[in-house]
Amino acid sequence: MTDVRKLRPHTIIALVEDRPGVLNRIASKWRQRGFNIESLAVGHSEKVGLSRMTFVVDANVDANQVVRQLDKLVDVVDIRDISDQDIVSREMAMIKVRTDKTNRGQIIEIAELFQAEVVDVAPDAIILEATGREAKIDSLLRLLEDYEIIELCRTGKVAMLRGSAVSHPEPSEDEQYDRYPGQHTW
Amino acid sequence: MTTNDQKSGAQMVMEAFLREGVSTIFGVPGGANLPLYDVLPEYYPQIKHYLVKHEQSAAHAADAYARVTGKAGVCFGTSGPGATNLVTGIANAYMDSIPLVCVTGQVILALLGRDGFQEADIQGITIPITKHSELVLDVNDIPRVMQEAFHIATTGRPGPVLVDIPRDVFQKKGDFYWSDKVELRGYRVQTMPDPNEVAKAAELIERSEKPVLISGHGVIIAHAYDEIRELAEKGNMPVITTLLGIGGFPGTHPLYMGMPGMHGMYWNNIAISEADLVIGAGMRFDDRVTGRLKDFAPKADIIHIDIDPAEIGKNVRPAATLLGDAKISLQELNKLVVRKERPDWFSWLDEVRRDHPSITIRETDEVLPQFVIQKIYEATNGDCYVVTGVGQHQMWAAQYFWYDKPRSFITSGGLGTMGFEVPAAMGAQVAAPNDTVWSICGDGGFQMTLQELATIAEYEWPIKFAIMNNGTLGMVRQWQELFYEENTVATPLKNPDFVKLAEAFGILGLRAERKGEVESVIQQAMDHDGPVVIDFKVKYDENVFPMVPPGASLGETIDLPAHEPEKVAAG
Ligand SMILES: Cc1ncc(C[n+]2csc(CCOP(=O)(O)OP(=O)(O)O)c2C)c(N)n1
Ligand SMILES: [Mg+2]
After folding, report:
1. Subunit contact B309:A25, Cβ cutoff 8 A
2. CATH assignment of B2-178?
3. pLDDT tens digits, residue range B412-426?
4. Distance of alpha carbon A87 from its chain centroid, rounded?
5. pTM surpassing 0.90?
6. Does some domain include residue A181?
């Protein structure tokens, strides 16, 4: 199992408060360990006031300890590493390629092969929009290397568990943690 | 409880303090937090503010106050330099899990992020050293933010919380409210351990022939003194306390074995290396405790009791994990633990202890710092608070003094902050006004915060400062001697006349230069009603032993070199 993990980067999903400074706190914990975040996607979640983040970090780092530290942050409601689970993941990319009359057709042909959409055409350039697994986008880019990519922007991966499983389940009754409302441990 | 009347932001902060039982604040005013100071008189004398000379001292004093009382410590600083001066104190509290609530003034809203005069992004600066922090933009958030701050600071694994409030937010008015519940969906504290793990732990204890129980700061934080004692006595196990765990278990108890780790007792490090079971209660297997991690407790199963999920499995792999409050966890465990005689283990431990000096004081005419500390112990009967700085004197204060009372040993563990000895003594004295506070100081550390002698003279806190004046940054000099071929660069100190210095502050200054003067000077200090600074001229090049060299395992501990004749043995 560890061998498989070595090949696959960590995919970590988090449900966080949608407020200033949260990203700063989270980024700070990765930075403290010198770990690079390869990609990060943030947006609203199904819950009001909570954002959903998807991180991808290098397979070889000790992400587990950082995830536990992040889980302690008051603004992080739930966080988990889902790398070993059955997930659906997607990424979107916009790719601007230099074109002219002679190669435009070839580029559109490649795009069709990957079900990428042509979202803008100019006499000297074309913008493609591709969605899919990271690997698919990687292959598309490899084919486009024969042409001149003048701009590339990838959203970073977003991921969720397959089937009806909820990625961030509410704590169940017996899993509810004790709190000390209004009073202290002493 | 809900009240409805218009208050200024500054008043709201103070109202929150009243509801949280805050009676003591340490701080320094400035432009940005002046509105807060403006309303202080309205809350006097329920809430007293002590003006210190540097914000670092405000944070350390609040920190020590929290260590002694078990309540949150509170400190104030203004924006910019006031806030950045708090940083060392906040980091210190963070590393030692001390509940602090720091309220800083900030530039007005319109100037935020525009390099306004005395603007520093203190929330950003302190992100890695606070349990939580808030920049309050709306006066109506103050009651909630303050309540959350105390809740977060004092529950679970405690820690410092910073609340940064712009000057104009202090001045705006709003309705004060106070709810009876803190709702933070992202903040959970698990207090009750998993019963299966408790049962597993009890079984491991029952099976064990050679157990050691390591009691840490968490036991003190959770007020689990009775519970740890019950576990030790019922389970019949020797007890080791970490540096910050000192006092959590009575220092004169027959099962007590002292401190482990880098400058721990030889027998403890050997016992841990031989043990078949190590129970870590409210401690985090810090590198100063474990030595080379991969050779830590090689023959032992580990039971880890801790409230912080991020500590479980961080350094060691426990065979049983009690994730929960130390008090509750120990109560649960104690229900299942049965007594077991372990005559072989105890006689082996006695033998190791007998054969190893570890903490004996050799016969000499020189004034040894250990000797001074031992004499303070004898003179006070241990009935006092002891505060220390960081360095050799700190280790000797941990080794040559027996602490029976929880919370009576106040020291900077995780961060190792020199200069802690002066302001922390102030916080301890305010927290325990009727008790004696001895501050065992380094001559180096004392000079990092000695400006507070003015504060001490002003408030007439009768603290006894015992400067271990070895004329050097001793602990660093020891490393230079042992690991850098005695290349003592930048460690010798050219010190001022500490007696005259004390007198300049209006404080009694005393000096002991010869061994024969030590006891009488200690007595003189104790007989004096006010603060005292004692300059103990101690030996320059005494080293702290036992010692685990950096990178070595506990099994490789170098014991105190044997000397003849042996004089004083460990209690
Ligand atoms: C603020 C700070 N700066 C530097 C150090 C590094 N350091 C650790 S111990 C020590 C020497 C302390 O000297 P002193 O206070 O005289 O105590 P001694 O070791 O001589 O008892 C130093 C410089 C530190 N711990 N804290
Ligand atoms: Mg010194």
Report:
1. no
2. 3.40.50.970
3. 999 999 999 999 999
4. 12
5. yes
6. no
